[in-house]
Amino acid sequence: MAHKQHKKQQTKVEKRPIDLLFEQYALYHQQGTNQFIHWFVVPLMTFSISGIIWSIPFPHLNFLGQYNGFINWFTLFMAVVVYYYLRLAPTLSYVMLLTFGLFSYLIVHLEYWEQAGGPTLWSVCLILLIISCIGQFIGYKTEQKKPSFSIGLQFLLTGPIWLWHVIFKKLKFPY
Question: Membrane-spanning regions, if any (predicted)?
Fold first, then answer.
């Protein structure tokens, strides 16, 4: 009898921390409308937060010379977040690094627009953040649950990689 029980325990696959995190996150995203809304508002929220962090003045570092503009609060934030993702699931961290690269490209173009007389980067991103928060609350209203990001930073950081994990699962791509 003990042999059979030991064999059952051996065949039981231990879940990775990332899988447990996704299971917890999914509990707040059961309803189809909420899931659909999240496909738009999570990337928008992630982008807008990235742009707001980018907008925070960063000290000029003379030793960087011509590369001084490439280091800012967002690049430091991005490095920490990508490292966090790397610890959870390397493949997802790589795709988030590419996502942040795309966001950086778009943010730089918003800076060009600002320099040409357009609105400030931070104001555009603040408006996008407000729109994405409204969308989040609409989604959670249909779910009849409080927003998962209100639980803490970990759930706020989970949203973007949760979307990528859904794509990876559909493509049967390991993460």
Answer: 36-58, 70-86, 91-108, 120-139, 151-168
42 vs 139: which has the higher pLDDT: 42
**Token pair 């690049």 in the structure block, residue:** 75
CA atoms of 91 and 129, how far apart (whole Å): 27
Overall average pLDDT of the 25-52 stretch: 91
pLDDT of residue 6: 54
Contact 162, 25 (CB under 8 A): yes
Contact 96, 78 (CB under 8 A): no
CB 48 within 8 A of CB 129: yes
Q: pTM for the complete prediction?
A: 0.84
Maximum CA extent, the chain: 78
Instruction: For residue range 74-121, list pLDDT tens digits in order.
Output: 999 999 999 999 999 999 999 999 999 999 999 999 999 999 999 999
Distance CA 107, CA 99 (A): 12
In this structure, how many other beta carbons lie within 10 angstroms of the beta carbon of residue 155? 17
CA neighbor of 140 nearest in space, from 126, 151, 154: 151
Residue length of the chain: 175
Distance CA 122, CA 50 (A): 10
Q: How far apart are CA 14 and CA 9, in angstroms?
A: 10
